[in-house]
Design goal:
six-stranded antiparallel beta sheet, single chain, 236 residues, four-stranded antiparallel beta sheet, 10 strands, 28% strand, D-amino Acid Aminotransferase, Chain A, domain 1, alpha+beta, Dna Ligase, domain 1
Amino acid sequence: MRCPKEIIRSALREKRHKLLEHEAFELIKYYGIPIPDKIILVRSPREAYELADSIGYPIALKIVSLDIIHKSDVGGVKLGLMSKEEVVYGVEEMLKTVSVRVPHARITGVLMYRMAPPSLEVIVGGIRDSVFGVAVMFGLGGVFAEVLRDVSFRIAPISMDDAFEMINEIKSSKILDGYRGQGPVNKSAIAEIIVKVSKLMLENEEVDSIDLNPVIVYSSEAKVVDVRVILSKMFY
């Protein structure tokens, strides 16, 4: 596993202000932030076919490109693939569709990982402010994020007690204790992610912002299934 500075410097050498998805996952994994068990970047349908069984099903596919922000809008996301034949077809179709819709996009490959079971989704993020330093954010994810816009903030460094305060002070915190037949989720797992995001930001001044969205939370654990890391332009 590469250390954070290696990951970041590699991107900066290429004059990139954004980590590619597999790099972002590698970065947060270093800090012990939970991600899908096996995340693989493939560059061809054949490679996807050979590796699909080792990942397990259902599989999610996401296009990896510096030039594509909203992947689903251009056919760059496929979910729920249940066999290596479906995976091969999905990769072929994705590469073809994306190249037509965004003809000048630089495509690094396709990210493959096993889909996490559905559950409550939350967001954890961090941003570097010129006045206040590192601020970390927590809120509900999914449809709740758009409808409620219910978030809390703290200035880093953040302790576990701080993280629990952030979790409990959002207006809709009761949802975390169970709703509509769904049991309570693991607040400790969320708090640990918040603390680790604080540590990551403080130890890597090159990181301008980070967005873990969604973080899927269960009764026993939490798992980050999408991450975005933006680097500061002052380090180019």
